[in-house]
Amino acid sequence: MKKVVIVDDEKSGRALIKEYLENHEDLILVGEANNGVDAIAIINEFSPDLVFMDIQMPGLTGFDVLEHLNELPNIIFSTAYDKYALQAFDVHAVDYLLKPYTRDRFDKAISKLQPDSVKNIAPLADQHIMAKTDYPDRMIVEKGTKYVTLATNDIFVIEAYGDYSKIFDKRDSYLSNRGIGQLEEKLNPKQFLRIHRSTIVNLLAIVEVAKYGKSYMLHLKNQQKVKVSRSYVDKIKDLII
Fold this sequence. Notes:
By secondary structure, the chain is an alpha/beta fold. It contains eight helices and 15 strands. It folds into two domains: 2-123, 3-Layer(aba) Sandwich (Rossmann fold), CATH 3.40.50; 135-237, CATH 2.40.50.1020.
């Protein structure tokens, strides 16, 4: 059984999906919402396997909803606007239902649902967040077999991990598909400091700065210790009053 949530600001749109779901006994409807704010609350509460997501809604769009989800589910977009189709298919979203659609078209979308198809929505959510002109409050990261959103304020340290980055918070580690240089460009420089070519630290996570030869060792709230590269020592000195 797979849990399903429907998000559509039109009652008729939600009703049509519920009607078509009747032929799929393995898909169980656990909630529905007619706006983005309620959608976030319902999806985070029920952790559905699949969400039918409208895009153009009052307030938050369907893309906006993605960045506020604790864990990314499989998503089939359902909308009357075809201008978003290219963006959705560029990242291989499960499917894109353009209203009005038939039962056969609906069933075809369901048939595309695969166990790992949630991996395809992560790039779309990541692009949406990172495309913003200001510094993002959240990031899309990989935790085991799942994709989750992580508040940037909760990040303690970021380490280069090949072409990717490993991110640490108080308890866990996560993987970002972006390189450490890309993350440095997107994070607030007043809060996140590059201390090594392979390390970025959140200044709010530092509890102690200790001398370490001609450099420094930073002690973080999660018990991690990170060494400052000599070429970045001046950045730490500038912070010491």
